[in-house]
């Protein structure tokens, strides 16, 4: 049993069950050296604090401001002890008089803390820029070498790492020592690795490639007139495969368009309309419900045997529509949003029926006119080459048949326009 003067706590964390271990013992108080820190010691601490089981045991290279403080060194537990006081506690000493490099930390299961990790901006949860947050410290968004990337991918449930952010080590002295995160490669979690936050300013994301795990899946459209039309290819890890037309249903097509920020699926041309793929064939079929945000989240089944010329094609509608440069948001140049940017729509084949559907879609009443020839200005972006063929009763433009104009697709300045009858409030325009 611990004397009254002895105590321990986890500090600088998101709650009392995670953080750096601070001990008061033998008349002194301070942090604990973590050079030989492991799950045995962490298990005892979590149990003593009533915080469940030990999850992670990160260690931190000592910060310069901690260098003059005393650390409890040589703590060793078997993992079965009732409290830390039943372990071998070692002795107190300053860094100047010992070889301690790291401070010990513990994350217990008793409370959900702020520790999190993920890959950002890579097209699926299994690819992108690594982002790590431990306790209340800085967010770590740094490139990873191969061992660290492998631990990271496994922790995410994404299989092994196929590509690291920094696959090649430079040869200058001290490079390995300046890594923010250092792993052996066998850790069950990146949180069990060594962190050196003294080198956070060495992170140089513009020069880092993304981490790609084996479980990564994303879609692209190639060979089309614009980024939202083309032959459907799916990336499996680092390889792009061609999808068979028989395996592309409407629900899956909608998910692909949504993933690419291209609105909804307008049509799925077959017969290698956008050319034949040169890579391997995708061997699975996606079974999407249609409301998934990414193809990655769709269930899969065995795919079809795809013969030559049976590559899947897809044409999407664009993300949103708006009327701009008019006297109100219910009249103006027709623009649609594609992959985050706005582009004017070509006026070729644009008529009053198309404008009627758009006016209804934007809650702007009925169409009064559908002027052509850049009546409301040309805009700065290139003209979008799709043509809608509406009957006038469709609820949205993307419910109308769509075709893509030939080359040249549209004369400069020939942007479509619409003048609606009104009934527009502040929410009109930019409708999806």
UniProtKB/TrEMBL annotation:
Domain SRCR: residue ranges: 8-109, 117-214, 219-317, 321-421
PROSITE patterns: SRCR_2
GO cellular component, one term: membrane
Secretion signal span: none
Stored InterPro entries: SRCR (IPR001190), SRCR-like_dom_sf (IPR036772)
Disulfide pattern: 77-87, 183-193, 288-298, 346-410, 359-420, 390-400
Keyword set includes Signal: yes
This protein's UniProt keywords: Disulfide bond, Repeat, Signal
PANTHER family, per database record: SCAVENGER RECEPTOR CYSTEINE-RICH DOMAIN-CONTAINING PROTEIN SCART1 (PTHR19331:SF458), SCAVENGER RECEPTOR DOMAIN-CONTAINING (PTHR19331)
Protein name: SRCR domain-containing protein
